[in-house]
Amino acid sequence: MHALTGRIVLAAGFMFFANAASAHVGFGPTVGFSNGLAHPLFGIDHLLAMVMVGAFASQLGGRAIYLVPASFVGSMMIGAALGVLGFNFGLTEFGIAASVFTLGALVAFRSHLGLVSAMALVAAFGLCHGHAHGTEMPESVNGLVYAAGFMLMTATLHAAGVSIGLLITRITSRYGDVVLRSLGAGVALVGAGLMAGAM
């Protein structure tokens, strides 16, 4: 069972690894609520990072289940505003790639970070993701509506990650933790490819 799970995760990781360098922002129009909703679903880096934030929160349990994702979304809003205003972080793309790797690794190793540390870490990543989106957005009402869409989808993906984490560990009981940690390892592998492409 363990060997089979490992092979599946490794194969999935290599499949995504091939496209790692071109995974992030710049896909599709950046105006309108529906475009904002769709945008996070078409960037593998954002999609995986959001789900891993939720899975990581589910592993920590307790108040982390909602406070860790909330810290990401709140920081993402700040990052988006800074992006729209023209502030340049310099390492935004690398930070986004690092978020995929780090969050996957945290899930893979079942990290027991304290609540404040976990919130601070995901907030730093949220700033990077938000900044990347903000630099794409027009300074208009359409841009704000777009932002509302991608914020809502981000929160939805966090909730999906929490649900996946809880369901895997509870329904599959004996092997649940192994399956979830294996998924984290696969995401970390994708993140390593993204980091290589962002350098």
In short:
The chain has 199 residues and is mostly helical. 77% of the residues lie in helices and 0% in strands.
Architecture overview:
The protein is an all-alpha fold and 199 residues long. It has one domain (2-198). It has 8 helices and no strands. The radius of gyration is 16 Å and the shape is globular. Residues 1-26 have low confidence and may be disordered.
Spell out the blueprint of helices and strands.
Blueprint: H1 2-17, H2 33-38, H3 44-60, H4 64-84, H5 92-108, H6 115-136, H7 141-171, H8 176-198
Helix pairs in contact: 1-8, 3-4, 3-5, 3-7, 3-8, 4-6, 4-7, 5-6, 5-8, 7-8
The helix content is: over 70%
Structural class: mainly alpha
Shape: globular
One letter per element, helices H and strands E, the order comes to: HHHHHHHH
Residue share in β-strands: under 5%
Which sheet architecture does the biggest sheet show?
Answer: none
The figure for the number of domains is: 1
Pfam families: HupE_UreJ
Organism: Hyphomicrobium denitrificans (strain ATCC 51888 / DSM 1869 / NCIMB 11706 / TK 0415)
Keywords: Membrane, Signal, Transmembrane, Transmembrane helix
Transmembrane segments: 39-57, 64-85, 91-109, 114-132, 144-166, 178-198
